[in-house]
């Protein structure tokens, strides 16, 4: 498979959030605004990328029976680095994402890719896969964040875009809005899958 | 054996490398984080008291005050105080000058329902506090307008501001705070008001021989189910302990606080 | 009183699944049948309480005194995954019948973010050991309630004629949203 194909499968065909249903906790928890969704997507992409490099390079060194603890330590290390760096340089985003930053560790997306892909493939395809999955994850979170922000507050990335007469649906800013918004997005993805004949 | 040794070695090396990488990152980021927190605090305070050139921290009884100074002279006082809201405490930052006039009021943080409770962040609503002084009542629906539909949050924010002003007044401006001393209360019946969930709660407290002998709730507009939970147990506990500051009844916190405040209001002087 | 507030807060007001969005993956994965969701809830409760105790001890007696706060995430997740492994092994040897019921859920628990989330929240909130245990019980009960409610609804939904685009996860999300609306009503209870 070519690198481009490895990359692009993460965006539609194996879309992590909408088709594989991975990483739903942050997808619901931080998508109150498009900015937060995008920030979480970038943080997870960074961890995916670093983990793909290290795990792919060490794949012949790590014995099979201890691979899961090794992956967990490697992933947790990069997550903590992201956590501390964000706290230092992007404090507002760090506050908004809160507990979901350390919880990137248990994002099934990352451990799943480590186990199924990075530990079995050479460096360049692993990187392409990590970037594709990260981009797909970030895309899904940004779209959900944008939908909830537009409907819930009438803004996108913090910029007011709706006419003054628009009364925001407060419910989209609250937890129920996250579930319902994601439900509609999943249905939309089912429609796209059907049109593109992915199944 | 060699296999186990290899497992242990690989796992140990990865852990050591991880700990090393984290120690390095932590060393690099900690000073930045600490400096940022300090700067943010000073920036926020400079917003409240623009003339100040220095802020001094003062901690009294676990409460943190900041003294705004200009050329070494005290020109204002800042503190964060809280009061119980709908989804938890509402924290407000309040700055008061040396004359007792409010310089600035701002929402520090809260966990109220988005779209309902966050109306208190509205600048126009917050601006109501700007011309108040320490001698004003600062009470919801007295000199602070309510926002209908968000009464509980508005009251929490207002009470938090009142608390901050009282604390600053007592600490720096020599304000007399109402004190609770049963020994000073003469025998008789006293009336007091406190605010609960649905509005004012009025109680009648009877004191005889330096002891509270009965507490009667003569007026309230609480939700009946919740009122039931608090109406007997709180007065009972107060009479038992001869102190107003008893534990709140679980499930009826706001009502309990209202009754306690009313008793305090009746007897404190 | 404080403990009761923590317990009910974790169950109803800040329900781990419906308000804090922790543990969504198992929430969707095993909520198709009431029976499996009861099994999952039991396994989660068990690991949750043990994890609360162990992570609290590690924070208090190792990480905090040695000023190693930055190793928290790494340490906690390692502890939780070893704990799950350990429980699995012990259960298989000591209580094979229990293992048959819960065993298949145990490997799923390592990546259940409700467990790690609960451990981190305990530290962030500054809970003592007793409060941590109560909080973990509340978290587990809250998780169980949400899971079992959703499973009950989904069992019935299977028989309904849902639009094919909404079949499966999509309608489960919307149902979860409606249940979450109901849980919003608990706000202000404490």
User: How many helices of chain C does DSSP assign?
Assistant: 9
The number of domains of chain A is 1
Number of DSSP strand runs of chain C: 0
**What overall geometry of chain C do the principal axes of the alpha carbons give?**
globular
What oligomeric state best describes the polypeptide chains here?
A: heterotrimer
Using only C-alpha atoms, the radius of gyration of chain A works out to 18 Å
Structural class of chain A: mainly alpha
Query: Helix amount of chain A, in percent?
Result: 55-70%
Inertia-based shape of chain A: globular
Task: Calculate the terminal CA-CA distance of chain A, rounded to whole Å.
Answer: 19 Å
Summary tags:
heterotrimer; A: 199 residues; mainly alpha; 8 helices; 2 strands; C: 190 residues; 9 helices
Report on this model:
- The complex is a heterotrimer of chains A (about 200), B (about 270) and C (about 190).
- Chain A has helices at about 5-10, 25-30, 35-60, 65-90, 90-95, 110-120, 125-155, 175-195, and strands at about 155, 160.
- Chain A is mostly helical and about 200 residues long.
- Chain A has one domain (about 5-195).
- In chain A, strands 1-2 form a two-stranded antiparallel sheet.
- Chain A starts with a helix and ends with a helix.
- The model of chain A has no long low-confidence stretch (mean pLDDT about 85).
- Chain B is of the alpha+beta class.
- Chain B has 2 domains: about 55-170, Sufe protein. Chain: A, CATH 3.90.1010; about 180-265, Sufe protein. Chain: A (Alpha-Beta Complex).
- In chain B, the strands form 2 sheets. A 5-stranded antiparallel β-sheet of chain B has the order 1-2-3-4-5.
- In chain B, helix 4 crosses helix 6 (about 255-265).
- The radius of gyration of chain B is 25 Å and the shape is globular.
- Chain C is mainly α.
- Chain C has 9 helices and no strands.
- The mean pLDDT of chain C is about 85.
């Amino acid at each position: 498979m070519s690198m481009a194909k490895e990359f692009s499968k993460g965006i539609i065909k194996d879309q992590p959030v909408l088709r594989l249903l991975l990483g739903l906790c942050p997808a619901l928890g931080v998508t109150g605004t498009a900015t937060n969704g995008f920030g979480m997507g970038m943080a997870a992409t960074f961890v995916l990328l670093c983990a793909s490099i290290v795990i792919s390079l060490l794949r012949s060194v790590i014995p099979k029976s201890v691979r899961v603890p090794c992956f967990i330590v490697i992933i947790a290390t990069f997550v903590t680095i992201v956590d501390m760096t964000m706290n230092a340089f992007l404090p507002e985003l760090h506050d908004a994402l809160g507990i979901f930053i350390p919880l990137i560790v248990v994002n099934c997306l990352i451990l799943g890719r480590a186990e199924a892909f990075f530990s079995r493939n050479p460096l360049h395809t692993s990187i392409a896969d990590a970037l594709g999955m990260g981009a797909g994850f970030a895309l899904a979170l940004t779209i959900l964040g944008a939908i909830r922000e537009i409907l819930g507050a009438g803004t996108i990335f913090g910029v007011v875009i709706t006419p003054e007469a628009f009364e925001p649906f407060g419910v989209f800013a609250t937890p129920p809005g996250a579930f319902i918004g994601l439900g509609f997005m999943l249905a939309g993805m089912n429609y796209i899958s059907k049109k593109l004949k992915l199944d | 054996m060699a296999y186990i040794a290899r497992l242990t070695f690989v796992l140990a090396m990865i852990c050591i490398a991880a700990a090393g990488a984290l120690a390095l990152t932590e060393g690099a980021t900690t000073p930045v984080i600490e400096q940022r927190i300090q700067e943010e605090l000073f920036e926020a305070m400079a917003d409240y008291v623009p003339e100040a050139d220095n802020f001094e921290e003062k901690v009294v009884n676990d409460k943190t005050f900041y003294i705004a100074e200009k050329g070494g002279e005290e020109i204002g006082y800042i503190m964060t105080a809280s009061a119980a809201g709908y989804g938890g405490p509402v924290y407000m930052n309040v700055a008061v000058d040396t004359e007792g006039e409010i310089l600035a009021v701002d929402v520090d943080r809260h966990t109220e329902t988005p779209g309902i409770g966050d109306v208190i962040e509205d600048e126009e609503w917050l601006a109501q506090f700007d011309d108040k002084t320490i001698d004003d009542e600062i009470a919801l629906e007295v000199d602070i307008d309510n926002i209908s539909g968000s009464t509980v949050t508005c009251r929490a924010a207002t009470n938090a501001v009142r608390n901050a002003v009282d604390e600053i007044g007592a600490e720096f401006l020599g304000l007399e705070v109402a004190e609770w001393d049963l020994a000073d209360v003469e025998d008789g019946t006293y009336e007091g008001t406190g605010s609960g969930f649905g509005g004012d709660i009025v109680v009648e407290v009877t004191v005889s021989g330096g002891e509270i002998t009965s507490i009667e709730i003569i007026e309230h507009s609480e939700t009946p189910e919740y009122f039931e939970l608090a109406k007997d147990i709180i007065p009972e506990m107060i009479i038992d302990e001869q102190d107003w500051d008893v534990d709140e009844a679980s499930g009826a916190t706001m009502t309990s606080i209202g009754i306690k405040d009313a008793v305090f209001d009746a007897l404190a002087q | 009183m404080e403990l009761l507030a923590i317990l009910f807060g974790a169950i109803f007001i800040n329900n781990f699944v419906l308000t804090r969005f922790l543990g969504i993956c198992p929430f969707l994965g095993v909520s198709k049948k009431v029976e499996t969701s009861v099994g999952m809830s039991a396994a989660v409760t068990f690991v949750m309480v043990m994890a609360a105790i162990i992570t609290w001890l590690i924070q208090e007696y190792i990480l905090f005194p040695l000023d190693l706060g930055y190793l928290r995430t790494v340490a906690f997740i390692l502890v939780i995954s070893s704990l799950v492994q350990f429980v699995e092994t012990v259960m298989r040897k000591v209580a094979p019948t229990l293992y048959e019921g819960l065993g298949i859920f145990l490997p799923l628990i390592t990546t259940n973010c409700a467990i790690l989330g609960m451990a981190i929240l305990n530290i962030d909130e500054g809970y003592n050991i007793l409060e941590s245990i109560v909080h973990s019980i509340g978290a587990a009960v809250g998780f169980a309630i949400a899971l079992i409610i959703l499973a009950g609804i989904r069992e019935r939904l299977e028989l309904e004629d849902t639009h094919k685009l909404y079949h499966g996860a999509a309608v489960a999300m919307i149902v979860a949203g409606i249940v979450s609306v109901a849980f919003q009503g608990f706000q202000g209870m404490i």
